[in-house]
Amino acid sequence: MSIMGDRGTNDSLTTNDLGGSKELEVTINGPVDESVERSDEDEFLSWKAGRREWLIIIDLVSVALVVALDATILVPALPSIAVSLNANTTQTFWIGSSYLLVSAVVQPFIVNLSDIFGRRPVMLSSIGIFTAGTVICCVTNNYAVFIVGRSVQGIGGGGSFALVSVILADIIPLRQRAQYQAVTSLAWSFAAITGPLIGGLFSQHTTWRWCFYINFPFCVFAFVMTSLVVKLNIDRPALSLKAKALSIDWIGAFLFIASACSFLIGIMWGGSQYAWSTMKTILPIVLGTVGLISCLFWEAYGATQPFFRLSLFRSRTSNAAYFCVFLQGLLTFCLLYYIPFYFQACKDSSTTISGLNLMGITVGLASSGVGSGILLTKIGRYRWVLVQGWVLMILGNGLLILLDVAIPSSHWIPIFIVVGISHGPTMMSLIICIQAASPKEDVSYAASVYTFMRSLGQSVGVAIGATVFQNTMAHHLSTLSLPSAIAKNAEEFVSILKQMPLESPERKMYTLAYAQSFRNLFEVLTGFAVLGLLTSFLIKEYSLNRNLESVHVLQNRVGIELESGPDPALGETPESEESKGKDE
User: What are the angstrom distances between the C-alpha of 249 and each of 96, 295, 303, 390?
Assistant: First the structure.
């Protein structure tokens, strides 16, 4: 009997006690509709992670923590970094955006490499690349070198972040995956929201370089843990190193990464650095769009082993779910950036207090994320959880419109808790929905496209947030007979605003312009939340009662299989990730 169980033609269910965990074997070919018989419900609910699985989860939590922390910790430290590196406003923008852009575009390709070379080698390489980028950022005093360091960090961070979800899909059955995914998502959410607080503390009380020094303990821990516990075998015939290199879709990867970079650069420039009507904005967007279309044609008709699986986009449910992920990424990053900005401009808060004020969102997100994961496992359905999350998100973003200069903490703290609660069920249900709706052989790629669409939403959120805020602030400044040019340097002007007397009429007018601009931005974000709810109605319910379908399996499972000899369907012994292969 094969432990993986995907090769049979009949549905079957067995359990084995392997290394302390209760493993399921169920053969279900592809996504299953809700009408599927649920007679084996109790067997799926009885699965528990063993010691091996929990050690890997702890490792993945540490990876998610450091990657998310690095993505947000620099926000309050940007002014200090800009002064230290003699960067202007445009250059300061790219200190944060370069990481997001590179991190987004490399994720699908790095997951493809992990499918070829193994999860552990690619995860270790990603952690190593991230660490190298961190070192560059720590030691340089040159802006150009710093951007190189942030881009290198983006490659490692993007790969590591994508592989967290992929490895979880390798070791945890789909029905149980939500509650364990909640653990890593909780780590990501905690770091993403507390990052601005930590960055504020460092920028106020020590050097901004501590925003990078803090990465090193996490990187060392994650590297050692990955080496020791992420031991997966590839359940397929062994390939030589040459065969693996030749199987890489180099042309598709180049087209995708170059085109996505061009497209996102144009999007990030538009409305903030350059007008949308200028060639500096239009040209990279057009080139990126043409390149991405060319990439899709190549993947469909030219590539023998495409790295970007178009089969993931053949159902209405998958497309709607990916769009919802994009919207949630956009909303999340806009809130993480503009809420601390609101407190600094309208409430005269320090960078530290601005970050601390996000704790209400952290509490709401933590409780709802874990609760939603447990609930999804218990009931085996995700659609109503997703709809409920979007309804709460509309409510939370709508309540943010009430933020003004005079709103007391007794009002905005409950609002932030609602905002946090809304993201938990939305995040968890989308992760599970996408994997449930994907073909069984593409689950790991579905997980990588999830992280890519989320990162893409964050990158686009930078552009949309900046465009909306700058344009509306220019309007409000003109209405109040104030210089509209300040809108293009709104972040830098906060330091000048803080030097004005609190009760001066001039400061009150500037603060009013800021408050009205934030209100307009939150109105736009509420509209995006409404769009998310409408899109979620297109999503269909699929069964979560599916077995482990990855060819990357824990070594103890393969070991048990090998006790009675190799599986005839394989033809030879499964390939170990520790084996580099020999030239044939």
Answer: 30, 11, 7, 37
Contact 415, 361 (CB under 8 A): no
**Rounded-to-integer distance, Cα 452 and Cα 106, Å:** 8
The Cα 89–Cα 208 span in angstroms is 18
Domains of the chain: 329-546 (1.20.1250.20)
Model pLDDT for residues 47-60, shown as the tens digit of each residue = 777 888 899 999 99
Rounded-to-integer distance, Cα 358 and Cα 343, Å: 10
d(CA 219, CA 98): 21
Quote the DSSP letter at residue 38. Answer: -
Give the CB-side neighbour count of residue 53, counting CA atoms within 13 A: 23
Segments of 316-382 assigned E as strands: none
CB atoms within 10 A of CB 267: 23
- 401: how many CB neighbours lie within 10 A of its CB? 16
> Backbone phi, then psi, for 24, in 5-degree steps?
-100, 150
Nearest to 102 by CA among 152, 68, 162: 152
Segment 486-507 mean pLDDT = 84
pLDDT digits (tens, 9 = 90+) for 79-131: 778 878 887 767 777 887 888 889 888 988 999 899 888 899 999 999 999 99
What average pLDDT does range 411-423 have in this prediction? Answer: 92
pLDDT, tens digit, 9 for 90 and up, residues 315-364: 899 999 999 999 999 998 888 888 888 998 888 888 778 778 888 888 88
d(CA 138, CA 141): 9
User: Would you list the DSSP string of 386-412?
Assistant: HHHHHHHHHHHHHHHTT--SS--HHHH
pLDDT of residue 563: 37
The Cα-based distances of 247 to 124, 239, 251, 298, 584 in angstroms read: 21, 10, 11, 15, 15
